[in-house]
Amino acid sequence: MATPIDPDFHARLAALNEKFAVTVPVTMEKITQALAVCKAAPGELPPETDLRQLHELLHGVAGSAGTFGFGMLGQQARRIEHMVRGVLTEHTGWPEVVPEVEKLLKWASRDAQATTYE
C-alpha cells in the first residue's frame, strides 16, 4: 500500500481524482434518467424497482464522491439517498424528494466540486 511519503502517491491520487471527475456528468445523467422514470410513473409513488435504481445511483455518489475531492456532492447525495430510503420503507415523502434531486442535479451541473451547496 502506498504511503503519503511515497513520491508517487500524490500523483496517483490526483489521477484517480481526475478519473472520478470525468464520471460525474455521466452519473448525473443516469440520476436524471432515473428521476424521469420515477416521475413518469402513474400513482402517488413510483414503483419500488424504479426507486431502488435512483437510490443505488445516489448511494454510489454518496459513497465515493468525498474520497475523490467532491465532498459536498457526496454529502448532498447521502442526504437525498436517505430521503429515498425513507420513501422505500415508509411509502411516503416522494413529493419532497423530487425537488431535492432536481436541485442536486442543477447544482452539480454548475460545479460538482463546489464546497457550498446553493
UniProtKB/TrEMBL annotation:
TM stretches of this protein: none
SUPFAM superfamilies with a match to the protein in the record: Histidine-containing phosphotransfer domain, HPT domain
Keywords tagged on the record: Two-component regulatory system
GO biological process: phosphorelay signal transduction system
GO function term, MF aspect, one: protein kinase activity
UniProt KW Transmembrane helix keyword: no
Record domain HPt: where: 18-105
Protein name: Hpt domain-containing protein
Lineage: Bacteria, Pseudomonadati, Pseudomonadota, Betaproteobacteria, Burkholderiales
